[in-house]
Amino acid sequence: MLKVEKITKKFKGVDVLKDVTFNLEPGQLVHIRGINGSGKSTIFKIITGLLKPATGTIMLGDNDVVGALIENPGFLEFEDVLTNLRFLADLNHNYNEAYIIELMKKFQLDPANKQPVAKYSIGMRQKLGIIQAIMENQNIILLDEPTRGLDVESINQFAALIMELKAAGKSIIVASHDDVAAITYDQQLQLVDGCLS
Ligand SMILES: Nc1ncnc2c1ncn2[C@@H]1O[C@H](COP(=O)(O)OP(=O)(O)OP(=O)(O)O)[C@@H](O)[C@H]1O
């Protein structure tokens, strides 16, 4: 369970987040909608500890593990896909190759492809970013503009994956400026002028 309470954040004197408060219950799928620059990534960076809020608190359960796709994920550009995902999962001693290969196949990525990630398209990199956010069986999943660069078929695969993860009890927040028609959310929040409601 994730509890975000009265988070505020300023950049250069400008209020980006004002008393942002919400809960994410186990198994809940939440959408945060906001235009470019509204502060969606900033909320995720604060939840994951990349940024500190000016005020407010983030509470996670003792057994919660957060997976996140935020902005453009970084990879080892000269290594192939599986090496990259193994490296990331190994950092937490949590490499499950069978699950990673299953996820890659769902997204039409070839696990045997030895091309370096530098040669991957924007959409292919985005798929890797989604995979790294869920491949360690993380129970709280934060996805920032996850469908950026994905073609229609891949967006449908993404929507099916999200509904599967929800059915498996994962708690998920998707932040985006638009809707994915095939996803039904439990809760829809809007981020406008730093306020989430
Ligand atoms: N490190 C930073 N320093 C200064 N300003 C920042 C910083 N990070 C974000 N901002 C500003 O805070 C505001 C919110 O940015 P943020 O990236 O959270 O928005 P977003 O909703 O995720 O945008 P997008 O949909 O374009 O990704 C923007 O005005 C941005 O310029």
SSE layout and pairings?
Layout: E1 2-11, E2 14-24, E3 29-33, H1 40-47, E4 55-60, E5 66-69, H2 81-91, H3 97-106, H4 122-134, E6 140-144, H5 152-167, E7 171-176, E8 187-192, E9 195-196
Parallel strand pairs: 3-7, 3-8, 5-6, 6-7
Antiparallel strand pairs: 1-2, 1-4, 8-9
The structure holds adenosine-5'-triphosphate (ATP).
Residues 11-12, 16, 34, 36-42, 145, 177 line the site of adenosine-5'-triphosphate (ATP).
Q: Strand order, main sheet: write it out.
A: 5-6-7-3-8-9
| Broad shape | globular
Helix share, percent: 25-40%
Q: Tell me how many strands there are.
A: 9
Q: What is the CATH homologous superfamily assignment? A: P-loop containing nucleotide triphosphate hydrolases
User: Given the helix and strand composition, which structural class is it?
Assistant: alpha/beta
| Overall pLDDT level | 95
In this structure, how is the largest beta sheet organized? Answer: 6 strands, mixed
Percent of sequence in beta strands = 25-35%
InterPro entries: AAA+_ATPase (IPR003593), ABC_transporter-like_ATP-bd (IPR003439), ABC_Transporter_VariousFunc (IPR051782), P-loop_NTPase (IPR027417)
Domain ABC transporter: 2-196
GO molecular function: ATP binding; ATP hydrolysis activity
Protein name: ABC transporter ATP-binding protein
